[in-house]
Specification:
With 140 residues, this protein is an alpha+beta fold. The chain contains 5 helices and 4 strands, in the order αβααααβββ. It has one domain: 3-Layer(aba) Sandwich (Beta-carbonic Anhydrase, Chain A). Helix content is 39%, strand content 15%. It has a 4-stranded mixed beta sheet with strand order 1-2-3-4, with helices on one face. A hairpin with a 5-residue loop joins strand 3 and strand 4.
Length: 140
């Protein structure tokens, strides 16, 4: 699934969400074995989140969507350093949110599904992977 800011919402059955529907179809019907949350530097959705935090919703859809990663912005960093931090932290939030889907969490627990957090740095061309302890290492 490709979407703005590589975000995955929490599991909810009370509203329609294309991202959640795609995840359900991939996991329950197609039986995928790996899910990769792939973020990238210079992400416009994350930039929107960082620049408009606390000023209310000015847009019908995007501001509510990027608010999924709002807790990633809880940092004392500023400017470029904050943006880069939030870009990566949003990947972790999406990974956490994936585990709120009960049938997905069960497959992970059984060893039938693996979750991966990746970050592509447009400046260096490096693909980074998030380790189990939250560190970022160059994958390729």
């Amino acid at each position: 699934v490709r979407n703005v800011a590589n975000l995955v919402p929490n599991y909810r059955t009370d509203h329609n969400c294309a991202t959640s529907a795609c995840i359900e179809f991939a996991v329950r019907d197609l039986g995928v074995k790996h899910i990769v949350v792939l973020g990238h530097s210079e992400c416009g959705g994350i930039k929107r989140l960082c620049e408009h935090k606390g000023i209310g919703r000015e847009r019908d859809f995007i501001d509510g969507w990027v608010s999924i990663a709002e807790k990633a912005g809880a940092t004392d960093l500023e400017g470029f350093e904050k943006l880069r931090h939030v870009e990566r932290a949003a990947i972790g939030i999406s990974l956490e949110n994936l585990l709120t889907f009960p049938w997905l969490k069960q497959r992970v627990k059984e060893g039938n599904l693996e979750l991966h957090g990746w970050f592509f740095d447009l400046e260096t061309g490096n693909l980074l992977t998030k380790t189990a302890i939250g560190e970022w290492n160059v994958l390729a």
